[in-house]
Amino acid sequence: MDPIYLDHAATTPVRQEVLEAMLPFLGARFGNPSSSHRWGREARVALDEARERVANCLGAHPDEIVFTSCGTEGDNLAVLGAWRAQREQGRRALATTPIEHKAVLAAAEQAWSEGAERRMLPVSCDGLVEIDEFTGIVDDAVGVCSVMWINNEIGVVQPVPEMAAHARSQGVVFHTDAVQAFGKVEIDVRSLPVHLLAISGHKIGAPKGVGALFVRRGTPMQPLFYGGSQDRGRRPGTENVAFAVGLATAAELTLAERERECARLTTLRERLEEAILARLPDAVIHGRGARRAPHIINVSVPGCDAESLLMALDLRGVAASSGSACQSGAVGASHVLSALGVSGEEMSSALRLSLGCLTTEEHVTRVAELLPALAHKARGTAAVS
Ligand code: PLP
């Protein structure tokens, strides 16, 4: 039986079309886009086209796209770069949520250590930031507010358009980490009043090591790196043409398939959740009361140890991840589940199953039987048929 990959929120395979689009720029078309000779001009054209294609996928202008090395860099540039610029205007507060990816949380910690006023937006037990609380906390003393669109551990979708509209009314620079959201929700910055929005290539079929940050024209921003004038000085360094082309290709393909793929994944996710709950009635699906992404299930199986379950699944060819695995791959309490008020026992038994391009109906059928069977075995209880 073929192995089953249920870890698409961690990363996705590079698409064949993406690889083929990139290869010429790793070979004969190797020029530096800043060179004025023919090799350089050829690379410049490819880079400009890639920028325009990524911009089109977001509804942005090409000069509003900064290519980055990953989602983490985009989040850091957004949070720290914008906050340092806002600080100079006297807006010292930085608001975010406790369930952000570490790429945002650690950047916020850095800003707080540089003198930012700390404003943490509370989340409900389903992981949702209530808009009423948001409007009370995000006022005109806030320089930057960062809220992720889709949470990478539990899949909860935040009301980003409403938040961004309120932030704009207060003159607050609003950033959203859309690393898990691109291709899962509609994103069009012509109607979405965000200032900053980060995406990452390896979640959508491009290689690891490339991303983009949308920076709305006029957004105050200090660079994180110093050097040449590439990317209008916002991100100096010789541009990675091949990876920019790969990102543009992956983004276009993802958008072309978005509606069909989201419907397919939602059906599969719901089927898997229902089967797990039918066979393990005490299992808890986190974030269930909120709107959730099509591709992420975070389930606690009380009485089981998540790491042991993951190992047992792995031995049977199923790759998933632990709700408590931190981004470095080390195991620790999940800061996301902890912010939701999840108990220690539920936290230590939390698994994340994330669906994507490799997931088939047959995979879901197999995991729907295997996971409850392994859980019952671990607990020494009889399976519910
Ligand atoms: N933000 C979210 C929501 C993520 O899921 C991830 C990666 O898992 C990142 C940021 C970081 O992206 P990258 O791995 O490209 O640095």
Description of the molecule:
The model has no long low-confidence stretch (mean pLDDT 95). The two termini are 23 Å apart. The chain has eleven helices and 13 strands. The chain is α/β, with parallel strands linked by helices. The longest helix is centred in the last third of the chain and has 39 residues, at 241-279. Helix 1 packs antiparallel against helix 7, helix 2 packs parallel to helix 7 (241-279) and helix 3 (71-87) runs parallel beside helix 4 (102-113). 39% of the residues lie in helices and 13% in strands. The strands form three sheets. It has a seven-stranded mixed β-sheet, with helices on both faces. The chain binds pyridoxal-5'-phosphate. Residues 70-72, 75, 101, 103, 148, 152, 177, 179-180, 200, 202, 211 line the site of pyridoxal-5'-phosphate.
Keywords:
binds pyridoxal-5'-phosphate; seven-stranded mixed β-sheet; 385 residues; four-stranded antiparallel β-sheet; 13 strands; alpha/beta; 39% helix
